[in-house]
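To: structure desk
From: M.T.
Subject: fold request, one chain
Message: Could you run this one when you get a chance? Sequence is below, nothing fancy, just the single chain.
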Amino acid sequence: MHEESRSVPSRNARGTLVVEIALEFGTGTKCCAARGLGTPIEHHLIDDTCYVTCRSPDSDSELIHDTVPVDMVCACRVLASHGCIPSLESIDSERMVVRTNPENRRVLRELMADLDDIADSVGLRSLVVNGAQSDSDSALVNLQELTVLERETVEAAILAGYYDRSGGAGFGDLARDLAITKSALSKRLSSAEAKIMRNLYRNE
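Reply: Done. Structure tokens follow.
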């Protein structure tokens, strides 16, 4: 029963939480000044200017260095306001994937809420669990292999603190937040956690 046991490991108290967040945005939403420039290699936001180095969309060997004025509340500013360092993984005209390092799950919850204010949708793609000082102690949880319902349920559980050792939302609280029965929640979590654990130990 999920009310008694939680299958996905909690983060080590001394570890670092690393997440990949996907932001979807329409043509009317700016969200990031660097979008449309090509595949990002590195970028830095200094004052009101975004300094970008990216690969040309026409040639993988050609690099583009550009400066883009930032005149809106962009994703990088939101990340920085929560003490998170943004690392662009990919970006195009409609979607942005950024890897970052919130201090804890409370900061992650607040970050996701603020990003939701500037994007059409925001979702977790993956996170590192048990991330201690050594990479050998870390495991990447890829949420993209889950169904939409499973991913939404696990994401809600993570953000609500359901898997935190220090306590967070209980099983009943999570079911109420998702407006589903405890039985439905148990089935979703069991299915999702089984896939996550198979993924974690697939190569061992």
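Reply (cont.): The radius of gyration is 18 Å. Let me know if you need anything else for the meeting.
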